[in-house]
What does this fold into?
Amino acid sequence: MTTRGAAGPPPDEKALFGTGPAQLSLTLATGYTVRTHTDGCLAQAQRFLYGDQARWFRAEVTVNNLRPEAEARLGKDPSYRAALARRAACPDKDTRCVRAGGLDELRARLEHAQLAEARAAHRKEITTYHQLRDHALHRAADLLAAQPTPHWKGHDPS
Amino acid sequence: MMKNRLLTVAAAAFLLLTVGLGAAGPAGAADCPSGEFCAWENADFTGQRANWSGDDGWWESYIADQDSSWANHAVSGPGIKDHVKVYSRADLGGHMTICLTPGQEVNYNGAANDNGDSHQWAMSC
It folds into this structure.
Protein backbone atom coordinates (compact mmCIF):
# COMPACT_ATOMS: atom_id res chain seq x y z
CA MET A 1 0.00 0.00 0.00
CA THR A 2 1.63 3.24 -1.04
CA THR A 3 -0.94 5.57 0.42
CA ARG A 4 -2.42 5.11 3.86
CA GLY A 5 -6.11 5.67 3.33
CA ALA A 6 -9.28 4.40 1.69
CA ALA A 7 -9.15 3.10 -1.88
CA GLY A 8 -8.85 5.62 -4.70
CA PRO A 9 -6.63 8.69 -5.13
CA PRO A 10 -5.88 10.47 -1.83
CA PRO A 11 -8.01 13.56 -1.18
CA ASP A 12 -6.46 17.00 -1.62
CA GLU A 13 -4.24 17.77 1.37
CA LYS A 14 -5.41 21.36 1.79
CA ALA A 15 -9.09 20.53 1.35
CA LEU A 16 -8.89 17.78 3.93
CA PHE A 17 -6.62 19.24 6.59
CA GLY A 18 -7.12 22.98 6.18
CA THR A 19 -4.62 25.76 5.49
CA GLY A 20 -2.83 28.53 7.31
CA PRO A 21 -2.07 28.55 11.02
CA ALA A 22 -3.70 25.84 13.13
CA GLN A 23 -6.29 27.47 15.35
CA LEU A 24 -6.79 24.86 18.09
CA SER A 25 -3.94 24.00 20.40
CA LEU A 26 -3.25 22.13 23.63
CA THR A 27 0.01 21.91 25.55
CA LEU A 28 0.56 18.51 27.13
CA ALA A 29 2.38 17.65 30.32
CA THR A 30 5.06 16.13 28.06
CA GLY A 31 5.78 19.63 26.74
CA TYR A 32 4.40 19.09 23.25
CA THR A 33 1.87 21.60 21.98
CA VAL A 34 -0.46 19.73 19.66
CA ARG A 35 -2.42 21.80 17.15
CA THR A 36 -5.12 21.24 14.57
CA HIS A 37 -7.07 23.27 12.06
CA THR A 38 -10.67 24.39 12.29
CA ASP A 39 -10.96 24.72 8.51
CA GLY A 40 -10.97 21.84 6.04
CA CYS A 41 -13.17 18.78 5.58
CA LEU A 42 -11.79 16.82 8.51
CA ALA A 43 -12.58 19.64 10.96
CA GLN A 44 -16.06 19.92 9.51
CA ALA A 45 -16.63 16.19 9.90
CA GLN A 46 -15.47 16.35 13.50
CA ARG A 47 -17.87 19.20 14.28
CA PHE A 48 -20.68 17.16 12.79
CA LEU A 49 -19.83 14.04 14.75
CA TYR A 50 -18.68 15.41 18.10
CA GLY A 51 -20.67 18.65 18.17
CA ASP A 52 -17.81 20.74 19.54
CA GLN A 53 -14.49 20.39 17.76
CA ALA A 54 -12.46 22.23 20.42
CA ARG A 55 -13.86 20.15 23.27
CA TRP A 56 -13.27 16.91 21.36
CA PHE A 57 -9.73 18.00 20.44
CA ARG A 58 -8.74 18.75 24.04
CA ALA A 59 -10.21 15.50 25.35
CA GLU A 60 -8.84 13.31 22.57
CA VAL A 61 -5.30 14.69 22.59
CA THR A 62 -5.11 14.36 26.38
CA VAL A 63 -6.40 10.78 26.41
CA ASN A 64 -4.15 9.77 23.51
CA ASN A 65 -1.09 10.99 25.35
CA LEU A 66 -1.70 9.58 28.82
CA ARG A 67 0.98 6.95 28.31
CA PRO A 68 3.62 9.44 27.12
CA GLU A 69 2.70 11.57 30.09
CA ALA A 70 3.25 8.62 32.43
CA GLU A 71 6.60 7.94 30.72
CA ALA A 72 7.64 11.56 31.20
CA ARG A 73 6.79 11.38 34.90
CA LEU A 74 8.83 8.19 35.09
CA GLY A 75 11.86 10.03 33.79
CA LYS A 76 11.66 12.36 36.77
CA ASP A 77 11.39 9.61 39.39
CA PRO A 78 14.61 9.44 41.47
CA SER A 79 14.54 5.68 42.00
CA TYR A 80 14.04 5.17 38.26
CA ARG A 81 16.92 7.52 37.46
CA ALA A 82 19.11 5.62 39.92
CA ALA A 83 18.21 2.33 38.23
CA LEU A 84 19.02 3.88 34.85
CA ALA A 85 22.43 4.94 36.18
CA ARG A 86 23.10 1.42 37.50
CA ARG A 87 22.16 0.01 34.08
CA ALA A 88 24.43 2.47 32.28
CA ALA A 89 27.32 1.55 34.58
CA CYS A 90 27.09 -2.14 33.62
CA PRO A 91 29.83 -3.39 31.29
CA ASP A 92 28.74 -4.40 27.81
CA LYS A 93 26.90 -7.77 27.62
CA ASP A 94 27.13 -8.27 31.41
CA THR A 95 23.62 -9.65 31.79
CA ARG A 96 24.06 -10.43 35.47
CA CYS A 97 24.90 -6.83 36.22
CA VAL A 98 21.90 -5.71 34.20
CA ARG A 99 19.55 -8.07 36.03
CA ALA A 100 20.95 -7.09 39.40
CA GLY A 101 20.22 -3.46 38.63
CA GLY A 102 16.51 -4.30 38.52
CA LEU A 103 15.61 -1.69 35.92
CA ASP A 104 13.01 -3.77 34.10
CA GLU A 105 11.02 -4.72 37.19
CA LEU A 106 11.17 -1.21 38.57
CA ARG A 107 10.07 0.23 35.28
CA ALA A 108 7.11 -2.12 34.99
CA ARG A 109 5.99 -1.29 38.51
CA LEU A 110 6.46 2.47 38.21
CA GLU A 111 4.88 2.71 34.77
CA HIS A 112 1.75 1.10 36.13
CA ALA A 113 1.61 3.57 39.01
CA GLN A 114 2.38 6.58 36.83
CA LEU A 115 -0.30 5.65 34.30
CA ALA A 116 -2.84 5.34 37.11
CA GLU A 117 -1.80 8.77 38.35
CA ALA A 118 -2.07 10.27 34.88
CA ARG A 119 -5.53 8.79 34.45
CA ALA A 120 -6.64 10.13 37.83
CA ALA A 121 -5.31 13.59 36.98
CA HIS A 122 -7.27 13.60 33.72
CA ARG A 123 -10.48 11.98 34.85
CA LYS A 124 -12.58 14.82 33.41
CA GLU A 125 -11.01 14.60 29.97
CA ILE A 126 -11.46 10.82 29.94
CA THR A 127 -15.14 11.20 30.78
CA THR A 128 -15.61 13.88 28.11
CA TYR A 129 -13.81 11.64 25.62
CA HIS A 130 -16.24 8.79 26.17
CA GLN A 131 -19.28 11.07 26.16
CA LEU A 132 -18.33 12.69 22.87
CA ARG A 133 -17.49 9.33 21.30
CA ASP A 134 -20.96 8.16 22.26
CA HIS A 135 -22.41 11.29 20.71
CA ALA A 136 -20.44 10.67 17.52
CA LEU A 137 -21.60 7.07 17.35
CA HIS A 138 -25.24 8.16 17.40
CA ARG A 139 -24.64 10.91 14.85
CA ALA A 140 -22.90 8.45 12.55
CA ALA A 141 -25.63 5.84 12.96
CA ASP A 142 -28.34 8.39 12.17
CA LEU A 143 -26.43 9.60 9.14
CA LEU A 144 -25.94 6.09 7.79
CA ALA A 145 -29.59 5.22 8.43
CA ALA A 146 -30.64 8.21 6.36
CA GLN A 147 -28.54 7.14 3.38
CA PRO A 148 -30.61 5.89 0.37
CA THR A 149 -30.13 2.17 -0.38
CA PRO A 150 -27.64 1.83 -3.25
CA HIS A 151 -29.03 0.38 -6.49
CA TRP A 152 -26.67 -1.86 -8.36
CA LYS A 153 -27.15 -1.59 -12.11
CA GLY A 154 -27.34 -4.90 -13.93
CA HIS A 155 -27.46 -6.99 -10.75
CA ASP A 156 -30.47 -8.77 -9.37
CA PRO A 157 -30.88 -8.13 -5.65
CA SER A 158 -30.03 -11.37 -3.87
CA MET B 1 -9.41 67.23 18.05
CA MET B 2 -7.90 66.88 14.58
CA LYS B 3 -4.71 65.43 16.09
CA ASN B 4 -6.67 62.85 18.07
CA ARG B 5 -8.51 61.69 14.99
CA LEU B 6 -5.26 61.49 13.06
CA LEU B 7 -3.70 59.42 15.84
CA THR B 8 -6.69 57.09 15.89
CA VAL B 9 -6.54 56.60 12.15
CA ALA B 10 -2.79 56.01 12.33
CA ALA B 11 -3.23 53.54 15.18
CA ALA B 12 -5.92 51.68 13.25
CA ALA B 13 -3.75 51.55 10.16
CA PHE B 14 -0.83 50.28 12.21
CA LEU B 15 -3.02 47.64 13.81
CA LEU B 16 -4.27 46.50 10.41
CA LEU B 17 -0.71 46.21 9.20
CA THR B 18 0.47 44.13 12.18
CA VAL B 19 -2.63 41.96 12.15
CA GLY B 20 -2.03 41.38 8.46
CA LEU B 21 1.54 40.36 9.13
CA GLY B 22 0.47 38.27 12.09
CA ALA B 23 -1.94 36.29 9.96
CA ALA B 24 0.97 35.17 7.79
CA GLY B 25 2.28 33.66 11.02
CA PRO B 26 5.51 31.91 11.92
CA ALA B 27 4.03 28.48 11.29
CA GLY B 28 2.18 28.02 8.02
CA ALA B 29 0.25 24.89 7.21
CA ALA B 30 2.27 21.69 7.41
CA ASP B 31 2.96 20.51 3.86
CA CYS B 32 2.66 16.76 4.15
CA PRO B 33 1.13 14.44 1.54
CA SER B 34 -2.29 12.98 2.24
CA GLY B 35 -1.95 9.52 3.71
CA GLU B 36 1.41 10.11 5.38
CA PHE B 37 3.17 11.01 8.60
CA CYS B 38 5.84 13.70 8.32
CA ALA B 39 8.70 14.87 10.49
CA TRP B 40 10.84 17.92 9.81
CA GLU B 41 14.39 18.68 10.83
CA ASN B 42 13.42 22.17 12.02
CA ALA B 43 10.53 23.76 13.83
CA ASP B 44 7.52 25.11 11.95
CA PHE B 45 7.61 22.34 9.34
CA THR B 46 10.81 23.60 7.74
CA GLY B 47 14.14 22.06 6.86
CA GLN B 48 14.50 18.53 5.52
CA ARG B 49 11.32 16.49 5.67
CA ALA B 50 10.91 12.78 6.18
CA ASN B 51 7.56 11.29 5.24
CA TRP B 52 6.21 7.79 5.59
CA SER B 53 3.08 5.94 4.56
CA GLY B 54 4.14 2.92 6.65
CA ASP B 55 6.03 2.11 9.84
CA ASP B 56 9.73 2.75 10.29
CA GLY B 57 11.76 1.11 13.05
CA TRP B 58 14.95 2.91 12.11
CA TRP B 59 14.67 6.54 11.09
CA GLU B 60 17.34 7.70 8.70
CA SER B 61 20.20 9.69 10.18
CA TYR B 62 19.07 13.03 8.76
CA ILE B 63 15.87 12.85 10.83
CA ALA B 64 16.70 10.46 13.70
CA ASP B 65 17.11 12.59 16.83
CA GLN B 66 16.83 15.65 14.57
CA ASP B 67 13.05 15.96 14.44
CA SER B 68 11.58 19.26 15.55
CA SER B 69 8.10 19.36 14.04
CA TRP B 70 5.61 16.68 13.08
CA ALA B 71 2.27 16.23 11.31
CA ASN B 72 -0.14 13.33 10.80
CA HIS B 73 -1.92 13.49 7.44
CA ALA B 74 -3.33 9.98 7.35
CA VAL B 75 -6.74 9.55 5.74
CA SER B 76 -9.08 7.67 8.05
CA GLY B 77 -11.21 4.79 6.88
CA PRO B 78 -12.60 1.42 8.01
CA GLY B 79 -9.76 -0.71 9.32
CA ILE B 80 -7.17 1.97 8.59
CA LYS B 81 -4.44 2.46 11.18
CA ASP B 82 -4.44 6.24 11.30
CA HIS B 83 -2.89 6.91 14.74
CA VAL B 84 0.88 7.46 14.66
CA LYS B 85 3.08 6.68 17.69
CA VAL B 86 6.62 8.08 17.89
CA TYR B 87 9.31 6.44 20.03
CA SER B 88 12.53 7.76 21.52
CA ARG B 89 14.60 4.74 20.44
CA ALA B 90 14.84 2.58 17.34
CA ASP B 91 12.56 -0.44 16.93
CA LEU B 92 9.79 1.24 18.92
CA GLY B 93 12.08 1.20 21.96
CA GLY B 94 12.70 3.71 24.69
CA HIS B 95 9.32 5.26 25.33
CA MET B 96 6.43 6.57 23.28
CA THR B 97 6.88 10.31 23.14
CA ILE B 98 3.70 11.34 21.36
CA CYS B 99 0.61 9.91 19.68
CA LEU B 100 -1.10 11.92 16.92
CA THR B 101 -4.34 11.38 15.02
CA PRO B 102 -5.00 12.74 11.52
CA GLY B 103 -4.90 16.52 11.25
CA GLN B 104 -2.80 16.90 14.40
CA GLU B 105 0.59 18.56 14.22
CA VAL B 106 3.30 19.91 16.50
CA ASN B 107 5.36 22.82 15.26
CA TYR B 108 7.86 22.88 18.12
CA ASN B 109 8.64 21.54 21.56
CA GLY B 110 11.60 23.13 23.33
CA ALA B 111 11.96 20.40 25.92
CA ALA B 112 11.57 17.34 23.77
CA ASN B 113 12.54 17.79 20.17
CA ASP B 114 15.39 15.96 18.45
CA ASN B 115 14.29 12.75 20.10
CA GLY B 116 12.46 10.53 17.60
CA ASP B 117 14.02 7.33 16.28
CA SER B 118 11.11 5.17 15.14
CA HIS B 119 7.35 5.16 14.71
CA GLN B 120 4.41 2.88 13.99
CA TRP B 121 0.83 3.22 12.87
CA ALA B 122 -2.00 1.86 15.03
CA MET B 123 -5.77 1.85 15.43
CA SER B 124 -5.43 3.63 18.77
CA CYS B 125 -2.82 5.18 21.04
User: Anything to note?
Assistant: Confidence is low (pLDDT under 50) at residues 10-26 of chain B. The two ends of chain B are 62 Å apart (CA to CA). The domain at 36-122 of chain B is CATH 2.60.20.10 (Gamma-B Crystallin; domain 1). The helical segments of chain B are 2-24.
